[in-house]
Design brief:
With 462 residues, this protein is an alpha/beta fold. Helix content is 27%, strand content 26%.
């Protein structure tokens, strides 16, 4: 095998996924590999295994430029559920073996237009400098002879086999893509032969997360604000809630998985405080493996309930308010780790243009808006929507909450025009996505006959 390792420590390691045995191995290269084992991995039969390459930015800092951190947590959860398995954490593999500093330099090349392969080549570095001999030696030291390998990377399969480990099965580990890593994942597929790291393209909906890139459209932030995707689910007769306010569940489970994938793809997800009060949403990514976005609530007077799920610690939260909100309430939210940012008032509450400018200043490039009806209407009236995604269910409820309220439009010819339609069907629902025609960076929506739309405002009470 040619790779020598020596076990130097073994200790119990409790994690959010349960307790593992952490066994450290010094390698001939000078690096220390960590094997996290669950159950008895020595002996006959293939062992569920993940060979995970070190990625400080993704694993520890939560970067969404790659899928590493999500894969790490998904693999640990999968091994814990199996009750027997091992994750080998390979230090020295940062940036596919080029090191942390060179990886950051490669990021700069990617920002200049190179993909993840060409970025390395521009710097005179190998595309992939990793070697899997020491990882195989760690598995051998653990008594593992054959594995069912959790990976999308055929090079890991080839490397372990070449080092004497039998790979009996390859189990893909796709994640829900983010707009920041979608090109990176595509490059893995096209140029590095990885197995669909971003999941299955719609409408082929199965156990893998759906690739929602076609629903998102071409993500291009506008000057002074993010790219805004407005998404809601409605009944066949255009209602997003019943006359009593009930909205669970208009759409089926497959459509809700797509909604979670859209969240994972976005930098932030926004609702008005009315939705928080009525529905108490969590707005995290739970139905697909992915990163939960920044949660944003428009709340001009800070009437958000203290027990609201959106304030819990499972994802970051920002409340956009105004000077009308009480200072003690702002302090109380900040003490809980919730960001609170005041912006100027509009006629009905938070000024939407100012709120969007704030988000752009925080680095939000793609904003997913999930409602409710007043926020939907205000954004459409103000011309702030770039992409509209509507899920239509096979349900009719009659009287209820309309998805879109009064836009001040008297003639059909003056309506908000949608173009470049894409359509996808699930078992129970139909999703339709359009670009909003004529949306300009200054927030004015150009429609037929030069209609002048009223100034955008946050809905009353938001």
């Amino acid at each position: 095998m040619g790779a020598a390792v020596r076990e130097v420590a073994s200790v119990s390691l409790p994690t959010e996924f349960g307790e593992f045995r952490a066994r450290a191995f010094e390698c001939h290269s000078g690096f220390v590999y960590l094997a996290l084992t669950r159950g008895d991995v020595a002996g006959a039969g293939p062992v569920l295994a993940r060979l995970h390459s070190e990625c400080l930015t993704g694993d520890a800092l939560g970067s969404v430029r790659c899928d590493c951190g999500v894969q790490l947590r998904l693999a640990l959860r999968t091994i814990a559920a199996e009750g027997r398995g091992v994750l080998v954490y390979a230090t020295g593999h940062e940036g596919r073996g080029i090191g942390l500093v060179n990886k950051l330099r490669a990021y700069l090349e990617q920002e200049r237009g190179a993909d993840t392969v060409d970025a390395n080549l521009r710097l005179g570095l190998p595309v992939d400098a990793r070697d899997y001999g020491e990882a195989a030696a760690v598995l051998t030291a653990l008594g593992v002879r054959s594995v069912s390998l959790l990976t999308n990377n055929p090079a890991k399969v080839d490397g372990l086999r070449a080092a004497g480990i039998a790979v009996e099965a390859v189990l893909p580990i796709p994640t829900a893509a983010n707009v920041r890593n979608l090109d990176y994942l595509r490059t893995k597929t096209v140029r590095m032969r990885h197995v669909a790291p971003a999941g299955e393209a719609l409408p082929l909906l199965g156990p893998a997360p759906p690739d929602v890139a076609r629903l998102l459209g071409r993500v291009e932030p506008r000057p002074g604000r993010p790219y805004v995707v407005l998404k809601y689910a409605q009944t066949l007769d255009g209602r997003i809630a019943s006359r009593t306010g009930d909205s669970k569940w208009i759409s089926g489970e497959a459509e809700r998985r797509i909604s979670h994938a859209l969240r994972a793809a976005s930098d932030a997800v926004l609702v008005g405080v009315g939705t928080v009060v009525q529905d108490d949403p969590r707005l995290t990514v739970r139905m697909v493996p992915g990163v939960s976005p920044l949660r944003v609530v428009l709340d001009s007077t800070l009437r958000i309930p203290a027990p609201a799920l959106i304030l819990e610690e499972d994802a970051p939260t920002l409340v956009v308010t105004t000077d009308r909100s009480p200072a003690p309430r702002r302090a109380a939210l900040r003490a809980r780790g919730v960001a609170v940012e005041p912006v100027p008032e509009g006629p009905g509450g938070v000024d939407l243009a100012a709120a969007l400018a704030l988000l752009a200043g925080l680095g939000v490039r793609c904003l997913l808006v999930e409602g409710g009806a007043k926020v939907i209407t205000s954004l459409l009236r103000g011309g702030f929507v770039d992409r509209l995604v509507v899920s239509v269910s096979g349900t009719i409820i009659g009287r209820g909450t309309e998805a879109v309220g009064d836009l001040g439009i008297d003639r059909v010819a003056d309506g908000v025009r949608l173009e470049h339609r894409t359509l996808h069907a699930t078992e129970d629902d139909v999703l339709i996505a359009w670009d909003v025609a004529g949306t300009f960076a200054d927030g004015a929506l150009a429609v037929a006959d030069g209609l002048r739309l009223p100034e955008a405002v946050e809905p009353a009470g938001a």
